[in-house]
């Protein structure tokens, strides 16, 4: 009986310690920008879920593709129906980790340049990528940001010939998240 109580206590402490290392956001921001001679296209998604484990560096993102908003309703419809096929591929995800997580001191204010490596899944296609990111710690709060490019063809997103001059081959993606302790 004593062993059972001891084991339960140890498991509870381990679980609380691991749980205390998790930070999350339900309203992270992912936006993308396509620049061509004919047209600039920008879309924002403020409903991004992300979880960061500051002990292991594990980083996860999930977003609904139909939560991107454009300046023009026609662009939003084309994005969801013709390019992303949001009914068929409703989510995009990233599952990875911050490289060299031990170089970040989450107990003191600072800005840290890091690389993040993991699997980015868009349009049902998963690619392993490494991207630059910045982790900031200020007054006990953690934020993360990254800017990188995604090639539509790498994720089998077909751009009709008639609009290839309006949509860039490489789309600039910007990620901004402010995390709260879970």
Mind explaining what this structure looks like?
The chain is α+β, with helices and mostly antiparallel strands. An eight-stranded antiparallel barrel has the order 1-2-3-5-6-7-8-9. It is 16% helix and 52% strand. The protein is elongated and about 55 Å long. 16% of the residues are buried.
> Roughly how much helix do the residues carry, as a percent range?
10-25%
The backbone outline, from C-alpha atoms, is elongated
Structure summary, number of beta strands: 9
Secondary-structure-derived class: alpha+beta
Overall mean confidence score, pLDDT: 89
Strand content: over 45%
Spatial separation of the terminal alpha carbons: 33 Å
Biggest β-sheet description: 8 strands, antiparallel, barrel
Instruction: Report Rg.
Output: 19 Å
Strand order of the largest sheet: 1-2-3-5-6-7-8-9
Oligomer: single chain
Unreliable spans are 1-18
Number of helices: 2
Query: What series of H and E elements makes up the topology?
Result: HEEEEHEEEEE
Itemize the secondary structure elements and their pairings.
Elements: H1 2-19, E1 22-35, E2 40-53, E3 58-64, E4 69-70, H2 73-83, E5 91-98, E6 110-122, E7 125-138, E8 141-151, E9 170-181
Antiparallel strand pairs: 1-2, 1-9, 2-3, 2-4, 3-5, 5-6, 6-7, 7-8, 8-9
